[in-house]
Design brief:
Length: 254
């Protein structure tokens, strides 16, 4: 006689039947996970996942003023310049290298076309502004470098017939409008009201202390570092708190 099997409570039997009914979704999930793993393994080695956009905090604010360097840096260095100024043309590459080597500094451009260099200075400023309107900060500095590489300076302007190689319909449309003129005039007026009388000139602002210094003439990197140290110490001596001449930092005005 076959031994009697132990009875299973009705609740347990119901649970087992229910458990069998619910098992298939887990099987389906396991299959999907396996397919995902196979897809990841089979991807080509050179294929990289899509890159996340740069954090907003590390991007430059929309210009103007147009910037390069670290937008979150402690110091903002404003360059007052004229695209027909021969001293600006010589100084700009040096300043760009210095900013690239100092990660706590953001450089921003401020137009100040001199009357002696018109109309070429404003025409070139319009080109840079329109390039930036179409392409942003990097496009602005690219246009500045191109102008400095090709201008004859001192108001002589660009060679006749020379065309900006990166020109686009958007840039040309901007050049035909009055939008860049308003920016250039506003910046030139602000520079004059701030006491800027020559190009190149620099205004160094410590965003942490709120202290600023105006430096006339091309300033070497060591002198800029000294100015940064001075502003960091929150020195409020009248000779340095608002404006200093180039001679104060051991340079000879040009």
């Amino acid at each position: 006689m076959e031994p009697k099997r132990p009875s299973i409570p009705m609740q347990v039997q119901a649970f087992r039947r229910g458990n069998r009914r619910l098992r298939w979704p887990w099987v389906l999930a396991a299959v999907l996970v396996a397919l995902l793993l196979i897809w990841l393994v089979s991807r080509s080695p050179g294929e990289s996942p899509p890159q996340s956009p740069a954090p907003v905090s590390m991007t430059h604010p929309s210009g103007p003023p147009w910037q390069m360097g670290n937008p979150e840096g402690r110091f903002t260095l404003t360059l007052y310049a004229d695209l027909e100024c021969p001293f600006c043309r010589e100084y700009f590459p040096q300043l760009k290298r210095w900013v690239g080597n100092n990660t706590d500094v953001a450089l921003q451009w401020h137009h100040q076309p001199l009357a002696a260099h018109e109309p070429a200075a404003s025409a070139e400023a319009r080109l840079a502004e329109c390039a930036a309107e179409a392409g942003g900060h990097a496009a602005f500095w690219q246009a500045v470098e191109w102008v400095y590489a090709h201008t004859r300076s001192d108001g002589q302007g660009l060679p006749d017939g020379l065309r900006y190689p990166e020109s686009t319909p958007a840039i040309e449309q901007c050049m035909e409008s009055e939008r860049p003129d308003a920016t250039i005039r506003a910046q030139a007026t602000e520079a004059t009201e701030s006491g800027v009388t020559a190009t190149p000139s620099l205004r160094l602002l410590d965003r942490q202390t709120g202290q600023a210094i105006l430096l006339q003439g091309p300033i070497e990197g060591d002198a800029l570092l000294s100015a940064m140290d001075m502003l960091s110490a929150d020195v409020t001596s009248p000779a340095y708190s608002s404006e200093a001449s180039t001679d104060d930092f051991g340079e000879v005005p040009r």
